[in-house]
Every structure is written in structure tokens, then in C-alpha cells.
Amino acid sequence: MKTTFFFFIKRIGLITALLVLTGCAAYTLKPAGVTKVGDMQFQSTMTWNKIPSGLGPKTEVWTGDGALLNQFIFVTGIENGKGMFRDFSKDTPMPKFNSKVLPHELKTLVETSLTNTSGGKFPFTGSNLKPHKVGDAMGIEFDLEFFNGDGLLNRGKVLAFVKNDKLYSVIFSAASTYHYDNYKAEFDAIAKSIKL
Amino acid sequence: MERTLHLWLALASLVLSGALQAEPYKANFDPGYRPELSSDEGGFWYQVDKIEESVKVSPDLVTDPALNQYVKDLTCKLAGDYCPHIRVYILRSPHFNAGMYPNGMMHVWSGLLLRVDSEAELAAVLSHEIAHFLRSHQITQWRSLRSKASAAIFADMILTMGLASLSVASGAMAFSREQETEADLYGLQLMTHSGYAPEKASALWEYVYQESEQDKSKEKHSTFFASHPKSKDRMTLLSKKATEINASGKTFKTNSAEYLKVVSPLYIEFMNSHLSLQDLGRTEAMLERHTRMGYPKGTVEFFKGELCKLRKGTNDETQAMQHYRNSVTEAQHPPEAHRELGYLLVKTDPKAAKQHLENYLALAPAASDKEMVQFYIDSANQ
Fold first, then answer.
1. Residue B132 in contact with residue B179, Cβ under 8 Å?
2. Closest chain B C-alpha to A125 CA, distance in angstroms
3. Chain A residues with beta carbon closer than 8 angstroms to that of B218
4. Nearest chain A residue (CA) to B367
5. Which of B163, B346, B347 sits opposite A151 (nearest CB)?
6. Are the Cβ atoms of A130 and B372 closer than 8 angstroms?
7. Which of A96, A136, B23, B118 has its CB surrounded by the most CB atoms within 10 Å?
8. Per-residue model confidence as pLDDT tens digits over A129-178
């Protein structure tokens, strides 16, 4: 009994230490200014934190106050036939990107990919779809809305475009109360300054 | 092994139904019953009351007044003197399910409303849920779980859960198969007492069984199937009882048209929510049923087009175009059928594409995607 108790305490200590260490190591400060994610260059106007996400190899996630309150997902250079994110459930696999898609079709691709990060439990819906050019690449911009697991309404904005047969996207989402309004100008600033 | 188990359950159900058939079922408590707060049941009610407060402000609550009034009236008709103690909440969830809680809170999911084909079938489900309530099944099950070793942990888990986890909790706290059989038979008693055709109960299970056959991989994950006996077993028992009841010569009602009239205005919203499941086999079965039921053809054809578009098979694009064409030839069709047809024609027939996209904007001038659509119209002009 005694051995089991000490083994348990030791294990908890080890796990805590690992969490603290890996947690600290994985957060990186991203100061305001010109920056590059993958081969996508843009200008941010405030300081962000790059955080671990597990979404997939060609993604990077930033947050200001914690991913549950606000976040940017950058998707850079998804190739034809690949998903935007890794598969989270075998019942809801990631839709595959087809480099020959028309711009409007990117909306469903992004919506479904985001929905499938929760195994389909929390659907993301887009609205206000508009064309959006990035350099000479035709893309789209649209608004995003979803309820998270606690029933909290989140809103966001998405930019997606295809360049050299590869998919690029900037996905901003935040709690609809305060955070969305507070950070949406940053999305516009980033979207406007993208260069490849 | 599983087949043997089902056979045993079916036999047990038949024996149980035979044994209880002579005496009509009665509620375990009088209308207006509320347990003492100091009792275990009172504490359980208190926690469920708190969950109900969050359901009242849930973003998933369907607030359409006509639909809510219709389901409420039907529940009242079936529950009789217990009507004031049952509160129905219609929730936007595309799965096939309904739920009853010990304090009188009832959930009806939009996925259930999409599958039910008549007032009689809805009455079958509501009666089943009311029967769980009247026979105090949940508190019985709660006490049974509590007596087990893991119950303390389980209690903490379920009672601290929010609305989002409620369906998971409901699955974990599944009624026993005996309770489900009792609710089926008591439910049948309630629905026939209100004049609804008893064969519609087994007919619904027959459909549910057929639909689940379209997608075997998902039945085991379904919240509903995690807590309910296999639909084939229920079908057999309910069908046998319906034959006995119908032998009396009494006439019963189905009220299909009444049901369609109330649910049709929400059909597009519920189907859009269903499509987010990406459950293509089930969607196909549902759309065939909706065609037979008489939902507006232009709308059903639009969703058949959406299904083909999602499936992305070899001929699916051609089939999708045909369904959208079928949709737009109907007087009542979603404007989006023109948009989708236009988008599919952009590469092959820009002139026709432009015409359909213009039709879309003419029918939906305030569409939130009009800038995108206008971009394609302008491109076709160049």
C-alpha cells in the first residue's frame, strides 16, 4: 500500500515537471513587425505567442490571451491531395485540397476542415463570402462562427488562397464577447500585408 | 454471440410484455410530485434543475414558436394529467435522439424530427420518453449505478457536467434494456389512448434500422444506439403488440400532413445541420424517405444535389447538376440551387452559369455571398 502511494506521488511529480518544462519550452514570443510563417510573409501590429497546437505540420498557431479566447491559425503551402490539418477522427477525415478548385470552393474546405478538428462535434459556419486577391493569386475572405464545447459563441475571419498550386490560409477566431472586436483589426492588417 | 444475445433480449421482451400485458401501466407517482431536497432523489432533481437552466439559454435551442407549440400540445395530449410537469426543449442536434430527465425536462433533437414521418411517429417517441418519466426510470437507474463501486466518481462526473456534455452523460447513464422495453410498451399504451396508430411505433424503428444499415460503422458510436435496444428487437415486439391492438377494430390516426406542415418551414435549417455530420449513407436514406413523405420536392432535390457534391464520386458532379436542375424547375426551391448549379457550370458553360448566378441574386438580393457571386458573373462577362 505504502509503495503504491509513493509510486503515485512520484509519478504525479514527474508528470507535473514534464508539463511545466514542455509548456514553457513550447511557447515563443512573436513581437510585432514583419514576420514569416512558412513561406508566407506578413506584418503584425502587436505581440503574439506562438503555441503548440498539434493541428498538423504546415500550420502555426498564435494567441494573445490563450487559445480558448483568441487565436490565429496560419496554414502554409498545403499540396494537392493533402488535408489542411491532420486527421482527428476516422469517421470525419480531413477533406483533401484539390489545387484546381475554384475560389468559392475553398470556403467549404476550410469550414469542414475546422469542423473535423472536433470530430464533427462543433460545426463551423461561414458567411459574407467575398473574393480577396493576394498579389496575383485569387482567393476568398469570409466570416466564421461556431459554438465551442461550453456553448460559447466564437466569431472569426478567414482568408484562403491558392498560389503555385498550394493552399494558404489565415484563420482568426475569438470569443464573440470583447475578444473578436479587440483583435479583428489585426486580421485585416495581416491579410493586407501578406507576401509570398 | 451478439446475435444470440439479441435473440435472448427479444425473447425476454416478449415474455415481459406477455406478463405485463393484462394490467395497463400506471405512473409511479401522482401529478405534481417533487421529492424532498434532503433525499437522494431531491439532490438529483436539484442538479438536473441546474442543467435545465443552462438548456433554457442554450444556443442550440430551437425557438420556432409554431413547432414548439405543436410538440408541446402533442406532449400534453399524451401525458394527460402530468402535462404541466413536463417541459419540452427542442435542440438543434442532427443525431436521432430524444431524452427525458427525472424533473420533467424533455429533450427532442432536430435529427429526430427529420426522421419522423408523422404526428403518430412523433407521438410514439414522446410517449416512450413520457413513460420513462412516469415509471421513474432515471432515479432507479441512478440508484443502481450509485450502488456500484465506480458510482461516486460517476456521480461527480455527471453532476458537474454542462450542457455540452449532457449527451455523453445520458449515454453513460443509459436505461436498462428492461426499462426501455417497459417504456416502449407503456408508450404504446399512451399513444393508442390518444388515438395514434400503434403500427407507427414499429414503423419508425424499421426505418431507423434500415438507415443504420446504410452506415454500420457509426451505429456503435451513436448516442442513441448506446442507450437503446437494437431497433430490430424493438420493431419485432412493437409490431406484434400493434397487430393485437389493431385486431380490436378501433380506428387510429396518423396525421402525416399536420406534421409536415409544422416541420417543413425548418427543413432547410435542420438539413443543413445534418449535412455537417458528413454521414453520406444515412443522408441518402433520409432523402429517399423525405421524397416519399412529401417534403417540398424542390428542396429535397437541392439536398440530393448537395449530397452528390459532398460524395465526390466519379459521376457525382453530373448527378449533382441534374438534382439542382430538378430543384430549380419546381415552383418552390431554395435560391441556392441556382447558385450551386451556376458554380458547377462555370468551367464548362459560362453563359448558363452566369444566368443561374443572376437568378440566384435576383431571388436572394440580400445574400451574404453576393460579392463572390458577382465576381463570377463579372468574370463571365469578360
1. yes
2. 9
3. 91
4. A128
5. B163
6. yes
7. B118
8. 999 999 999 999 999 999 988 788 999 999 999 999 999 999 999 999 99
B369: chain A residues, CB-CB within 8 Å = 104, 127-130, 142
pLDDT attached to residue B238:
93
Cα of B371 to nearest chain A Cα, Å? 5
pLDDT category at B138 given cuts 50, 70, 90 is confident
Per-residue pLDDT, averaged over A57-67, amounts to 95
Q: Does B382 touch chain A (CB under 8 A)?
A: no
Average per-residue pLDDT in chain B? Answer: 86
- Predicted ipTM of the assembly: 0.84
Q: Which residue of B has its CA nearest to A147?
A: B59
Selected residues 19-38 of chain B with any CB under 8 Å from a CB in chain A: none
CB distance A129–B372 less than 8 Å?
Answer: yes
pLDDT exceeds 90 at position A71: yes
Q: Does B54 touch chain A (CB under 8 A)?
A: yes
Percent of chain A with pLDDT over 90: 77
A184: helix, coil or strand?
A: helix
| Cβ–Cβ below 8 Å for B273 and A123 | yes
Task: Give contacts of B273 with chain A, Cβ < 8 Å.
Answer: 123
